[in-house]
Design brief:
The complex is a heterodimer of chains A (197) and B (203). By secondary structure, chain A is an all-alpha fold. Helices cover 71% and strands 0% of the residues of chain A. Chain A has one domain. The chains are: A mainly alpha (197), B mainly alpha (203).
Chain lengths: 197, 203
């Protein structure tokens, strides 16, 4: 595939065929906990998309220009998580200062994001798959959008299920996992479309 | 008295307060590797090691950590142990390290590790914290090993890489693919909740 098209292919693949939530199980904790309301899910999803696109790019720069030249690759876990935490903190302060509305809409989700496995996961995948800067950015953006898509679909289904009678043992997490399973099956239908590795 | 307390600390996370099927915590990073038993075992051993030792370390330091930066300190301690796991795995078991890929690093964001530190290690002495962390890791490990057992058996007809079911067995490809993990965990939670947890609340 040509240099130019590859980032785009990764972008679509990370939304559909290798959805970070449904094929890699990343970000499950907040996915199960927050997906009860459509609005809050959308808020968290947008925050995740934004942070993921920004932190994969930032981490790429840090990895390529700081860790690799000094042969400190083994420190990447610590460095990535510090970059993510610092970035989230910074964004929280900026939003609080300039836009009160946005702060009330997204602010409460930002602390949750630091511990979202999907964010760190995207950065680690990017290193292992040896993406370029452009591809990393599109990979982060696509993964975030894929996560947003999955959590919103889930929230929509769960809102409808509110009145349904569910066996005791399946209430809450159980039924959510089964829905996620069906969603993962549906997303597998995209498999023929595009694939990345 | 002290001894029975320790025993209780050890047993609660294995059953009544199990991190997976009661608290639904920390399934993120490990569910992905449950398509094979050996992957799962290595991964859960890593989680046990990290939970136990980071709980112990934080408990030793608990009187000196300012509460404002406590999250950061916790993350750094956890990340240190995860790096040890990662390096050891890369050195002694490079094939496994390659297969697990980014998931070893993702132990850092596993909610169980941080959860046990916040809920237990910050208020308790080092030894009980170590035991609590270890037991939480074990409670987590056995659930995932059960899931991996069924996924590998039904998905490929093998256990630990050896052919167990004969050629008459048609492999359920869905079990080793992502949806299988979701379904197995849901079924497991369902069975446990229907049969065990309900009775406890009725008593």
């Amino acid at each position: 595939m040509s240099e130019l098209l590859f980032p785009l292919a990764v972008f679509f693949a990370s939304i559909f065929t290798s959805n970070i939530l449904l094929t890699n199980y990343l970000g499950m904790c907040s996915f199960l906990a927050v997906s009860k309301e459509l609005e809050t899910s959308a808020g968290l999803g947008i925050a995740v998309t934004f942070v993921m696109a920004a932190t994969t790019s930032l981490n790429w720069l840090v990895y390529e220009f700081v860790l690799v030249p000094f042969q400190l690759e083994y420190l990447r876990f610590i460095v990535f998580i510090i970059v993510i935490a610092a970035f989230v903190q910074l964004i929280e302060m900026v939003i609080e200062r300039y836009s009160e509305n946005l702060y009330f809409a997204l602010g409460i989700f930002l602390p949750l994001i630091t511990v979202n496995c999907a964010i760190l996961g995207a950065s680690l995948f990017m290193v292992i798959r040896e993406y370029t800067f452009m591809t990393s950015f599109f990979f982060g953006l696509g993964s975030g959008l894929g996560w947003l898509l999955a959590i919103m679909a889930m929230a929509g289904i769960r809102q409808r299920l509110r009145t349904a009678k569910i066996p005791y043992g399946l209430e809450g997490a159980g039924i959510a996992l089964i829905i996620a399973g069906f969603m993962a099956m549906a997303f597998m239908g995209f498999n023929g479309m595009i694939s990345i590795q | 008295m002290a001894k029975s307390n320790l025993k209780k600390t050890f047993l609660t996370p294995l059953g009544k307060d199990n991190p997976v099927f009661v608290q639904i915590l920390g399934i993120c990073s490990t569910l992905a590797v449950t398509n094979k038993l050996d992957n799962t075992l290595v991964m859960t051993l890593g989680v046990m090691f990290t939970t136990a030792l980071s709980s112990w370390t934080i408990s030793l330091l608990r009187n000196w950590i300012p509460s404002r930066v406590r999250m950061m300190v916790e993350t750094l301690v956890i990340a240190t142990y995860v790096i040890i796991v990662d390096i050891a795995l890369k050195a002694y078991y490079p094939e496994m390290w390659k297969q697990l890929g980014p998931y070893v690093g993702l132990i850092i964001t596993n909610c169980i590790v941080m959860g046990r530190i916040e809920a237990f290690a910050l208020q308790n002495k080092p030894l009980p914290s170590l035991i609590d962390g270890l037991a939480s890791g074990m409670g987590y490990a056995y659930v995932l090993l059960i899931i991996a057992f069924f996924r590998e058996l039904l998905g490929t007809g093998t256990l630990w890489g050896y052919q167990v079911l004969g050629s008459w067995w048609t492999s359920w490809a869905i079990m080793i693919m992502p949806p299988g993990g979701f379904f197995m965990l849901a079924i497991f939670i369902w069975i446990v909740r229907e049969n065990f947890i309900k009775e406890e609340t009725n008593e």
